[in-house]
């Protein structure tokens, strides 16, 4: 399975590499071209090195800067039939060189290269989610044949094979339990914060972990057919469907290029002046416009990063500004994902500290996350554990223990009922009310009587409610909670944070379906989560947002935006920053086009020469950069 999953990841990486026009090598080339061209232009302008081996320095600069642009333009036409702006710039550079305007050609090439490089840097992002998903699968599996155990490579497991999984081991494939009992942490697949108790007939998923006990399973699904394999495939498909937004200038290229050529030819035919025609081509080169988007994007992303918001690309800004629906995962997003002891209610004269000491001592051997909540509370209060002399887990119910002559039960209501321990109406009412509020109840019985009730709850993240209300003010019309926990727990949490729409008992595929459902309703959907099981939904949503501090690496890699400090209050800030960046981009585009239009008129009248036209580009570019830089101050 591991090899098959890694093959999927490798194929995905290959596809992305093939579609990437600029890699690390491309950036190094850009740095060299920009540095070389700049040095040569300064050397020529200062008359320190006007010629090299009898060739004008500006011509050498134009060739160094222009060749990569011309080459890329030819490649784009040959491979994709793409008449991008690179074609227009190439024509202007070649025409300028042809009439001896080397300085103008070099300046245009330099500005074009800088603009392209800035855009590529802001749009690129690392996508290693698929590889990390593959790494969830264990390399080995313990197969049982004719009563003999032996280890084999996990990818060799076939449907129908019988496997043994011991405590602390990952389950290699999907299967059905046929023997044994175990507590299985299924958060990677189901999103359920509480580990599942699995026994005969229970279904288990590949990539999940046996935290306590051991089980024998019969493999039902292997390789790409497992739940984990489905998650990998969903992430791959969702990411493949997310084509980067085309740059505004490229959307106009279909008519922009022929229009500029037509105007240049008309000016030449009307005036008979070849220089005017070439000047029109230089003026028409949208260098300032090329800088409009990447500079604003770079500034906005930089400012957001300082606030602990990682935005993984320029196209994300546009999508964030259009959001109207946000879907929240519960555990680890709305809540902290760290259950803690909320309350201890004591009966029959027992004191709180006595009950906590006994509970912590009994839970000391357990790896259950509820046990950790009890132990952490006891340690925090410096309470010495009362450890039992006899300890026996009851899968799915709790623990039976003995200390000296006392008999203890620690567990849920099912354990009490199975041991014929009576629960009073007052205790039952308290239990029901606590569960209604989303808490887990643990009973402590001593010698046949309930003497304590422990209430354990996953705390709601600070600022969750304020964030939801702030999002509504930012024109987010729908806030929805998706959770693998029980619907009652989700609804209880939803009420506390003002989320009225809650969908519970969900698997990763269900979360993806809800994302698709809201998208079909015409909503622009963001999904925010922190778990591996959230990765497919994060990738499928218009915008995926991950909790960076507590979130898993896979969720972080699958997301478009990462909240590095896990501060939900940064969500409204992200939307505000994105919308301001979009306004800035449009301002840049308007300014650059107005400058170009005026320059075209002056060039056609013969009032603007090639070198002056190139200088106009510099002025327009400076204005665009300064306008974009305003985003850094907010």
UniProtKB/TrEMBL annotation:
Listed InterPro entries: ATPase_P-typ_cyto_dom_N, ATPase_P-typ_P_site, ATPase_P-typ_TM_dom_sf, ATPase_P-typ_transduc_dom_A_sf, ATPase_P-type_domA, Cation_Transport_ATPase_IB, HAD-like_sf, HAD_sf
Bilayer topology term: Multi-pass membrane protein
PROSITE patterns, per database record: ATPASE_E1_E2, COF_2
Gene Ontology molecular function, alphabetical: ATP binding; ATP hydrolysis activity; metal ion binding; P-type cadmium transporter activity
Domain P-type ATPase A: 135-236
Enzyme Commission number(s): 7.2.2.21
Top-level taxon of origin: Bacteria
Protein name according to UniProt: Cd(2+)-exporting ATPase
């Amino acid at each position: 399975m591991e090899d098959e999953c890694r093959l999927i990841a490798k194929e995905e990486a290959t596809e992305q590499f093939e579609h990437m026009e600029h890699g690390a090598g491309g950036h190094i080339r850009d740095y060299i071209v920009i540095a070389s061209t700049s040095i040569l232009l300064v050397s020529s302008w200062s008359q320190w090195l006007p010629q090299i081996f009898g060739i004008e320095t500006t011509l050498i600069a134009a060739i160094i800067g222009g060749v990569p642009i011309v080459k890329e333009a030819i490649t784009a036409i040959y491979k994709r039939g793409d008449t991008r702006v690179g074609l227009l710039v190439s024509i202007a550079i070649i025409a300028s060189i042809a009439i001896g305007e080397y300085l103008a050609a070099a300046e245009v090439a330099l500005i074009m290269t800088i603009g392209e490089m800035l855009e590529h840097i802001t749009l690129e992002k690392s996508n290693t989610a698929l590889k990390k998903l593959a790494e969830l699968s264990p390399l080995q599996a313990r197969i049982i044949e004719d009563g003999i155990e032996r280890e084999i490579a996990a990818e060799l497991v076939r449907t129908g094979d019988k496997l043994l999984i011991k405590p602390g081991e990952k389950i290699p494939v999907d299967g059905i339990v046929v023997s044994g009992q175990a507590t299985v942490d299924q958060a990677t697949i189901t999103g359920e914060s509480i580990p599942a108790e699995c026994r005969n007939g229970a279904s288990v998923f590949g990539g999940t972990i046996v935290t306590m006990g051991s089980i024998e399973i019969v493999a039902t699904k292997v390789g790409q057919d497992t739940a984990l394999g489905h998650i990998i495939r969903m992430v791959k498909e969702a990411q493949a469907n997310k084509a980067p937004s085309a740059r505004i200038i490229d959307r106009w290229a279909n008519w922009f290029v022929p229009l500029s050529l037509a105007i240049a030819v008309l000016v030449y035919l009307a005036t008979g002046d070849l220089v005017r025609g070439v000047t029109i081509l230089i003026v028409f080169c949208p260098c300032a416009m090329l800088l409009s988007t990447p500079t604003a994007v770079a500034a906005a992303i930089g400012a957001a990063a300082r606030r602990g918001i990682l935005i993984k690309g320029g196209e994300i800004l546009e999508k964030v500004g259009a959001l109207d629906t946000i879907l929240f995962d519960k555990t680890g997003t709305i809540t902290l994902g760290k259950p803690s002891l909320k309350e201890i209610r004591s009966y029959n004269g027992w004191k709180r500290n006595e009950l906590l000491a006994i509970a912590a001592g009994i839970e000391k051997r357990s790896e259950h996350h509820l046990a950790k909540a009890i132990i952490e509370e006891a340690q925090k209060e410096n309470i010495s554990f009362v450890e039992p002399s006899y300890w026996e887990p009851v899968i799915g119910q709790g623990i039976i223990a003995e200390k000296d002559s006392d008999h203890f039960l620690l567990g849920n209501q099912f354990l009490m009922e199975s041991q014929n321990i009576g629960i009073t109406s007052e205790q039952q009412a308290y239990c029901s009310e606590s569960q209604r509020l989303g808490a887990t109840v643990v009973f402590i019985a001593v010698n046949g009587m309930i003497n304590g009730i422990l209430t354990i709850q996953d705390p709601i993240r600070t600022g969750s409610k304020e964030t939801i209300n702030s999002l509504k003010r930012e024109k987010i019309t729908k806030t929805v909670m998706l959770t693998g926990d029980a619907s009652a727990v989700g609804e209880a949490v939803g009420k506390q944070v003002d989320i009225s729409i809650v969908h519970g008992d969900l698997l990763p595929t269900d979360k993806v379906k809800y994302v698709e459902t809201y998208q079909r309703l015409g909503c622009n959907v963001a999904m925010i989560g922190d778990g591996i099981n959230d990765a497919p939904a994060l990738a499928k949503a218009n915008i995926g947002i991950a909790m960076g501090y507590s979130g898993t690496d896979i969720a972080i890699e699958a997301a478009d935006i990462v909240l590095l400090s896990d501060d939900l209050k940064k969500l409204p800030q992200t939307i505000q920053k994105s919308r301001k960046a979009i306004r800035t981009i449009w301002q840049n585009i308007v300014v650059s086009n107005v400058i170009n239009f005026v320059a075209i008129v002056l060039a056609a009248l013969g009032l603007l020469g090639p070198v002056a036209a190139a200088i106009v580009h510099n002025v327009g570019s400076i204005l665009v950069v300064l306008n974009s830089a305003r985003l850094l101050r907010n």
